[in-house]
From TrEMBL:
Residues 66-179 form the Translation initiation factor IF- domain. Belongs to the TRAFAC class translation factor GTPase superfamily. Classic translation factor GTPase family. IF-2 subfamily. This is Uncharacterized protein. Residues 210-273 form the Translation elongation factor EFTu-like domain. It comes from marine metagenome. The keyword Magnesium does not apply. GO terms for cellular component: cytoplasm. SUPFAM superfamilies: Initiation factor IF2/eIF5b, domain 3, Translation proteins. Its main location: cytoplasm. Residues 3-45 form the Elongation factor G-like domain. GO terms for molecular function: GTP binding; GTPase activity; translation initiation factor activity. InterPro entries: EF-G-like_DII, EFTu-like_2, TF_IF2_bacterial-like, TIF_IF2, TIF_IF2_dom3, TIF_IF2_dom3_sf, Transl_B-barrel_sf. It holds the Pfam family EF-G_D2. It is found in: Cytoplasm.
Amino acid sequence: GSEWGKVKALINDRGENLIEASPSQPIEVLGFDSNPLAGDDFIVVDNENGAKKIAEYRSKQKLQKKNTVIETNVDEMFKKISKGEETIICVIIKADVQGSAEAIESSISKLSTEEVKTRVIFKGVGAITESDVALANSSKGFIIGFNVRAIPQAREIAKRDGVDIKYYSIIYELIDDMKNLISGSLKPDLKENITGNVEIREIFSISKIGKIAGCFVKEGNISRNSKIRLLRDNVVIHTGTINSLKRFKEEVKEVKNGYECGVMIENYSDIKINDIIETFEVIETARKL
């Protein structure tokens, strides 16, 4: 702890003043500058100056730890999911009655998908305790409290260890939040939209630069930021991006249907006359349960 002091009195369990105390003897110590916490070690040092320095150091450590932003288990969980490192969401359920706990467990279990699975590792009745928080922390999960609250000690430990506690009194809100939570973890649906069809009609080789494709935009458009596929006899031989898009030697952002342009493909030069450059975009759509 960060408390210190000089012993002013030792009082035993019968209220008697003592000169010294022996091991395992219960005593009350007077003289601390503030109240120490239960479980703190009681250390005797040689002088008052040494006690002050130790207390100051521990006080700074305590303040630094308090000001450190702790990443919660839920934040950490979804970072791992987004990297493909984790596919299981662990949940602890505490409710006011057993029937509610079982109903919530059943509803949450049905929300599992192939990518993200939910697992209820414990369900019970009553207030959220330190052991619930410890279980959530060890399993890297979070706690759902339905019509119950966490006791003060559990709240402190949860705050310290970055364990999320979510409180609910309406089961539909709980399920909706779980759906949103899991939906946010699902990989988005990817839809491809073809935006243009461009035919290579000439090839120009420029020293120190490479090959430039003289093209005609047959359908849609081609833009500087387009993703492209190179087709030869309707077979895809390359997928990539555009390094340069020009019209009359001027760099342009976009060339529309019916116009000619010069295209240089990023890190690729195996192009031939009559090859087709197909431009496309990938549209991400958030998945919902």
